[in-house]
Amino acid sequence: MRKFVEKLSAVLDHVADLSIRIAGIGLFLMTVFIAWQVFGRFVLNDTPTWTETSSILIMGWFLLLGAAAGIREGNHLSFDVVLFLVNDKAKSVAFTISDFVVIAFGMGMVVYGLQLALKTWPTTIPNLGISGGVAFLALITGGALLVIYSVERLLRRAVGLPTTRFSDKLAEAD
Amino acid sequence: MELLVLFGTFTFLLLIGTPVAFCLGASSFATIAFIGLPPVVVFQRLNSGISVFALMAIPFFIYAGELMVRGDIARRLVALAGGIVGHLRGGLGQVNISASVLFGGISGSAAADATAIGGIMIPQMAERGYGRDYAVSVTVMSSIIALMLPPSHNLIIYSISAGGRLSIADLFTAGIIPGLVLAMSLMLVAWWIARRRGYPTERFPGFGVLAGLLINAVPGLILVAIIFGGVRSGIFTASESSCIAVVYAILVTIFAYRTLSWTAFVEATLNAVRTSSMVLLVIGSAAAFGWLLAYMRVPTALVEALKDVSDNPIIILLMLNVVLLLLGTFMDMSPLIVITTPIFLPVATAYGVDPVHFGIILILNLGIGLCTPPVGAVLFVGCAVGRVSVGQAMRSIVPFYIAAVATLMLVTYMPALSLWLPSLFH
Amino acid sequence: EITLRSSDTHPEGYPTVVAVEAMGEMLEERSDGRICVEVFHSAQLGEEKDTIEQTQLGVIDLNRVSLGPFNNIIEETKVFSLPYIFRSTDHMHAVVDGEVGADILAEFSNHDLVGLAYFDGGSRSFYNSKKPITSVADIEGLKFRVMQSDVFVDMVDALGGNATPLPYGEVYSSIQTGVIDGAENNWPSFESSGHYEVAGYYTLDQHLIVPEVLVMSKTKMESLSAEDQALIRQAAKDAVPVMRDLWAKREKASEEKVRAAGVEIVDDIDKTPFIDAMDVVYEKHVTSDKLKDLVTRIRAVE
Ligand code: NA
Ligand code: NA
């Protein structure tokens, strides 16, 4: 079991690394698009109308990919005061509940994101001409990754492997 | 009952350490299901909450800050501050605070300020015989200045939370004088402690050297001018100016000064993704949470309740400040802005407080919360950088708290401090 | 015992908000207090695109919205957003109160909504900081801020101007600093935004007179008794004159304030060349037979 979880984590290491790099490219692309918008308005005297809408779409992707990877890397802000006061057993129960909550919310993102995408599929996004449903694809993907990474956390905890948290990093730094 | 479900689940999840974004999202999810509304609304709000053009300024400013810190711009600003105020009593303490004023103009993040300035200043201060506790206290408290001076992405979050109808240019301008007042009050405390502890002063380097330091710091200072001038004059929107800041930072650090390697550039990009996606997810989930609060008429009920307590705006503002300070000690800034703005802003405006003025009060107040235990992200960062425990840092931070809270009271009860400067542009 | 939650993006006291509140009072009186309306103003429940979805889902019951966000959902609504489609506000009222208005309102029922009534959105005209516009030639080369919509961008281009999409909140300082030369809007917005302080020339070409709609969630409507449904439909109808009256007053007050500030108003231009310039816009956007037919019918209304 432990072997299997370690293998799974090794695979997910690559997935998370890839997704955070895609997110990084997204942030860079956003920079290029908006810079082009400013350039168009001042220099070409012709403001491109697609830059704003497409940058917003990219932002959705980069933030949901980044946020999902954040679950794995333990980057998310949380309130850890109470956890300092309790023993390891109670802590582990609390973390497990948290992971289930993230799984539930991630599943909500997938299911209801799908519902929204299907409902808005016939509409079009102004200035881009693509389907309005596209706006929800990032939500669905991000939700799926959240579920996968949280299941990984549960498995790791079950077999006694460590899982990272926001507070761990601070403790190390201290 | 519905309110109980919302706040009950939220508090429970918060206490067991669920990430704040999911506390907000999951408690909204549970409450919607409890009321019997279609849960899809939660995810629609989440998606709309993050699909806002003005929000783009957040990743961009964070990105620009990352590039500046890694590309040597921050160190040059510190050197300039050293030349200007190093000869005052408690010299390096004053330098630390002044550097925050300069760096605050290119960073909207208190944590970035504490890391950048603290990383450079604290070792220097320790070497020159300053107590580490003092060095950390000065670093941590002066980093609030970055939140008050433009560009502050927290003011953008506030503008969006207020319904996106407040001028970001006005908010940016409004923060300047309160930010400088805060800097002066902190410098006063730094001077007082330094005198009592007999800390040294630096030699004035002479105007020749100062001119050299100024030239070195020019790229950083130009960025301040681009961002503030661009937004204020209406040439750029806040999001556009933040993007220009990134482009400028890339050009300066990679091409002009060659202070940023390819690896450092990639690291800066990925770090910006990490930090901003955390902040943005919180904003998205808080949009769902805020929608429920509006749907359940919480702000209206709160205004009614407060009207029964008092009809004196002075008392109401004091109460709001106390509540915010308390919340701020327990939670982080951006979630608190998004959660409390829709609730407290209607209260404040009902008592005749200008929304721009209230924004400045809110940011300063929650900024103080970043420096207080138990949950003070900037305090943690400062302690980590300065290698002291939170308990040690507490030894000299209290006088700084007093100065910051005194500034908060001044800002609260003297609206002109915030509103006079923007009024000049109308 | 029935509370209808209604959304509006306008602030408290705005004509549309007051009109829906008035509708609520009528309903309360006529139903002996059984039905009431709660208005969530100032976009408390979200922007129009979002609240439309919420109304379709039955999360909120009533919604006062512009027609713009419907253009991508209900094709017929596009016709009202065409430049110079209406000759005057009276013409617009005649159209929406007549057969065409009823036909388009009926289309909403194919999208989980019930169209209850048309409200006024005012008539939009050009203002700028450079010169009085008295002919199409005067627009040549001027930069105008427009809303994010292909039709509006094409309209400004067709008149020889330069369309610049900008967020509304940036318009004031952008005119002030000369980033753009002007924008376009109705009297109340021209006044309340303070844009008249920086744009001293207003030409009443009335290129857009777009009505707004009050819609209801179809799920909610169908859950009510036939008698209550009739009450709601009637109250919505009766709120229209209230709305038009409030709007006219508001428009007048704004006009007086702007005129008193010394803005030069051009109110006697010959609109024919402006309308002629729109041929390319109509060619590009009025492509389906459905829309062509609607354009003909609207033009035929006296
Ligand atoms: Na700043
Ligand atoms: Na805090």
TrEMBL record, chain A:
The keyword Ribosomal protein does not apply. GO terms for biological process: C4-dicarboxylate transport. Its main location: membrane. The chain crosses the membrane at residues 20-39, 54-71, 92-118, 130-151. Residues 30-158 form the Tripartite ATP-independent periplasmic transporters DctQ component domain. It comes from the Bacteria. Keywords: Cell inner membrane, Cell membrane, Membrane, Transmembrane, Transmembrane helix, Transport. GO terms for cellular component: plasma membrane. It is a multi-pass membrane protein. GO terms for molecular function: transmembrane transporter activity. InterPro entries: DctQ, TRAP_DctQ. The complex comprises the extracytoplasmic solute receptor protein and the two transmembrane proteins. Part of the tripartite ATP-independent periplasmic (TRAP) transport system. This is TRAP transporter small permease protein. It comes from Tritonibacter horizontis.
UniProtKB/TrEMBL annotation, chain B:
PANTHER family: SIALIC ACID TRAP TRANSPORTER PERMEASE PROTEIN SIAT-RELATED (PTHR33362), TRAP TRANSPORTER LARGE PERMEASE PROTEIN (PTHR33362:SF2). It is found in: Cell inner membrane. The gene is siaT_15. It is a multi-pass membrane protein. It comes from the Bacteria. It comes from Tritonibacter horizontis. Residues 7-417 form the TRAP C4-dicarboxylate transport system permease DctM subunit domain. InterPro entries: DctM, TRAP_DctM. The complex comprises the extracytoplasmic solute receptor protein and the two transmembrane proteins. GO terms for cellular component: plasma membrane. This is TRAP transporter large permease protein.
